[in-house]
TrEMBL record:
Superkingdom classification of source: Bacteria
Domain called Glycoside hydrolase family 65 N-terminal: residue spans: 14-269
Xref: InterPro entries: 6-hairpin_glycosidase_sf, 6hp_glycosidase-like_sf, Gal_mutarotase_sf_dom, GH65_N, Glyco_hydro_65_C, Glyco_hydro_65_M, Glyco_hydro_65_N, Malt_Pase/Glycosyl_Hdrlase
KW Kinase (keyword) present: no
Protein name: Glycoside hydrolase family 65 protein
Length: 774
């Protein structure tokens, strides 16, 4: 895809023309979700795309199939069961027959077409003027939302206006339950995930204006129900219930020039929330309540929710509309994709597709959570709750890996158990433990939520730290420094390495934070502290050992280059000669080369050591950061979408402003312009969040690692200004950075003291302002 695939508009993404070859990608662009249900942007009339052209997709967050994994060679501790987000029955489809002709963009004439994602409203609208093969012209408007207010509901409105005829229109609404996942068909590399149909129909009916279904997943045994309730000005002409499909047909006698409205509420639930025998009644109830409100009212509620979200999280940029569009598109998608019930996380692809089997990765904690922690802390807390909720699975996993105490979080998962099959790039990424701990600590630092520290965070921090205290040792050959061997850092082109710089640094901080959490908990709630110590059988001596590790953590360092190599062996590897790699293979190394070939090269797929340095930049001088940045700049291929945003932020910090802007621009429009050429499979949630970080942590230089809020704003020379809000310990601060000055406005009555460009600033009352030269 080329640049500017969609016209540049600040609040809207418009598909101006229906082009079959862009369909698959557009389905992701127009995907809607509310963190519980997600649906791809497929057409209401049900376009018959092949598996290479499109994918009907409807999902419930956390709802999966699980099968026995077949390994060619099995080792102890390999996960035995897969987890795949299951594609669920589709209820969006409404076949429209205009006086005998099926409304189908493949036939007749498209006179006018556009589809818009209205990011301010949280709604997708498609307008089509179509002439049937028989010359009947109709104006059709399709509106759709996935309700941010009612977690089980998706709502659709179709308006039809016959332009040059009076006659009959037939509308048939479907429930298609013969569903299957497509990843096995479209991704030949992975022999993983359900193949064929995995949702057995347990109940299927059409009654009154309802279509209802209950299904059970063959292997995971999970149950779900879904249904629709339609409202149509016509009469029911037919209802049909087959083995896997059900439908209701309405017939309308229409008059030329009049507009006819058809509304459909769609609901999904599953047995995580409702007992199996109550699910259908529950769905009927929810659908009825939504229909009583009606589509227009649902849209108003949606708008209210969106207004609230944008008032907290929007970033306004003056000076580059294309980037402004990218920023909002990215924020919109991450907001709608996050699990928010405390027992679901956020997939690397949100709920926008089957990519990565719907798995949750470290992407959530290191990329997405910082955004929510500073803007939507309640949402952030729910995502952290999910990790707390799966702490026992992590404890079990730690035991399997030989750690008697502590918890080891999985690299990829839905239900909390490890689901990655290739351990060098899966389980070996132990850093996920420290990443999760980092997010918990960041949440505590920014919100000051002591209750959460006592109830959940301290336990997670301690249990994750315990694994770090067990996985390594004080190695004599390294001056008795604490070494951690056989792990993989974030960079997936160097696997099973010794002393990955990022891992060692994050592990040390994890331990430090665990110690801090215990001390603080003891101080604020001694009873809860005693109870925790008892529950996890914590011994004071553990802290002594932690102290030794904190003091003596080993970091690879090259005296000559004065940089921190990514791991002990990094500089020994073969210099990367890209000219030897045919161009068409360059971005698909794992598809074209044996992993060992990749692991032996001195290059990196993505930001690794420099991510650690960025997160803990207070431990490094600017000179050190520069030297390391310069080095990693030459060896990083940015083959992961998680990379450029990190380089951009660090570039900003060290004053490489042009590079910062270049990286930021790539990150902001990565998915809109389909730079990685795989947007069809789903959003890149981590990078989307990385765009927000690029502005807030990059250009605005927001940091909290000194224990208080620090801001070092600058304005990219390409912009006139930018503006955003931050929440910090109950205070709500608006920050506007313009050409020569930064203006701070306190938006509530919660006093905030912070540092800007080294100056201490205190704002006390709502409306208090401070203007500073930059
Ligand atoms: C990256 C990982 C990331 C995963 C999911 C991989 O390509 O290397 O860091 O967690 O994608 O986004």
């Amino acid at each position: 895809m080329g640049a500017n695939t969609y016209p540049i508009e600040e609040w809207v993404i418009t598909e101006e023309k229906f082009l079959k070859e862009w369909n698959y990608r557009n389905e992701t662009t127009f995907a809607l979700s509310n963190g519980y249900i997600g649906t791809r942007g497929t057409f209401d009339e049900g376009y018959p795309f092949t598996v290479d052209e499109g994918l009907e997709g409807n999902f419930i967050n956390g709802f999966y199939e699980s099968e026995h994994i077949m390994y060619g060679e099995w080792n102890f501790g390999f996960p035995e069961k897969s987890q795949s987000l299951l594609n669920l029955p589709n209820l969006k489809k409404t076949k429209i027959v205009i006086d005998g002709d099926v409304f189908d963009l493949n036939q007749g004439e498209i006179i006018n077409y556009n589809r818009k994602l209205l990011m301010k409203d949280g709604v997708v609208v498609r307008n089509v003027t179509w002439k049937s093969p028989n010359g009947k012209k109709v104006v059709a408007e399709f509106r759709r939302l996935v309700s941010l207010e009612k977690k089980n509901i998706m709502a659709i409105q179709i308006k039809l206006t016959p332009v040059n005829f009076s006659g009959k229109i037939e509308l048939t609404t479907y429930l298609e339950a013969g569903v299957e996942n497509h990843t096995r068909k479209t991704n030949p590399l992975i022999d993983y995930g359900p193949y064929g149909k995995h949702l057995a129909v347990k109940e299927l009916k059409a009654e009154d204006n309802y279509l209802l279904h209950k299904g059970k997943v063959i292997h995971s045994g999970l149950s779900m129900a879904c249904g629709s309730l339609t409202k149509c000005e016509g009469v029911i002409k037919n209802s049909e219930v087959l083995e896997e499909d059900a439908s209701l047909t309405y017939e309308l006698s229409v008059e030329e020039g009049k507009t006819y409205v058809f509304e459909k509420m769609i609901g999904y639930t599953c047995d995580f929330d409702i007992a199996e025998d109550k699910m259908i009644d529950f769905i009927k109830d929810e659908l009825k309540k939504a229909m009583d409100l009606g589509y227009d009212e649902m849209e108003k509620l949606q708008k209210k929710h969106m207004d609230e979200f944008w008032s907290k999280a929007d970033i306004k940029v003056e000076g580059d509309e294309a980037l402004q569009q990218g920023i909002r598109f990215n924020l919109f998608h991450i907001m709608q994709s996050a699990g928010r019930d405390g027992r679901t996380g956020m997939g690397a692809k949100g709920l926008s597709g089957e990519g990565y089997e719907g798995h949750y990765f470290w992407d959530t904690e290191m990329y997405v959570l910082p955004v929510f922690i500073y803007t939507e802390s309640e949402l952030a807390k729910q995502l952290l709750n999910y990790r707390y909720d799966t702490l026992n699975q992590a404890r079990d996993r730690a035991k399997i890996l030989g750690h008697e105490k502590g918890a080891l979080y999985p690299w990829r998962t839905i239900n909390g158990e490890e689901a990655s099959t290739y351990f060098p790039l899966g389980t070996a990424q132990y850093h996920v433990n420290a990443d999760i701990a980092y997010a918990f600590k960041l949440y505590l630092d920014i919100t000051g939520d002591d209750e959460f520290l006592v109830d959940e965070a301290a336990e997670v921090l301690v249990e994750t730290a315990r694994v770090w205290a067990d996985v390594g040792c004080f190695a004599e050959c390294k001056d008795n420094k604490y070494c951690i061997c056989a792990v993989t850092g974030p960079d997936e082109y160097n696997a099973i390495v010794d002393n990955n710089f990022y891992t060692n640094l994050m592990a040390r901080e994890n331990i430090r934070d665990a110690k801090w959490a215990l001390e603080k908990m003891k101080e604020i709630d001694k009873d809860a502290y005693d109870a925790l110590v008892k529950k996890i059988d914590f011994k004071e001596e553990e802290i002594d050992y932690w102290d030794r590790i904190i003091e003596n953590m080993y970091f690879p360092y090259d005296e000559k280059m004065q940089i921190y190599p990514q791991d002990d062996g990094f500089l020994m590897r073969k210099p990367w000669d890209e000219s030897k790699i045919p161009e068409e293979k360059r971005h698909l190394l794992y598809e074209n080369y044996h992993p060992l070939f990749v692991y032996r090269q001195k290059m990196a797929k993505q930001a690794d050591a420099i991510l650690g340095m960025l997160l803990h930049s207070n431990y490094f001088t600017n000179e050190e950061l520069k030297r390391n940045y310069d080095f990693y700049q030459t060896v990083t291929l940015h083959h992961s979408s998680l990379s450029t945003c990190i380089f951009g932020i660090l570039a900003s910090q060290i004053g490489y402003d042009d590079e910062a802007y270049k990286y930021f621009s790539q990150s902001a429009r990565m998915d809109l312009d389909d730079i990685h050429n795989n947007f069809y499979a789903g959003i890149h949630a981590a990078n989307m969040a990385g765009t927000w970080q690029g502005i807030v942590f990059g250009f605005a230089g927001v940091r909290s690692n000194a224990g208080y809020l620090q801001i070092n704003p600058k304005l990219p020379s390409q912009w006139k200004s930018y503006e955003f809000c931050l929440q910090y310990k109950g205070s709500n601060l608006n920050i506007k950075v313009a050409e020569r000055e930064v203006e701070y406005t306190l938006l509530n009555d919660c006093e905030l003291s912070y540092e800007s460009l080294g100056e201490k600033i205190v704002l006390s009352k709502e409306g208090d302002k401070y203007v500073q030269e930059i």
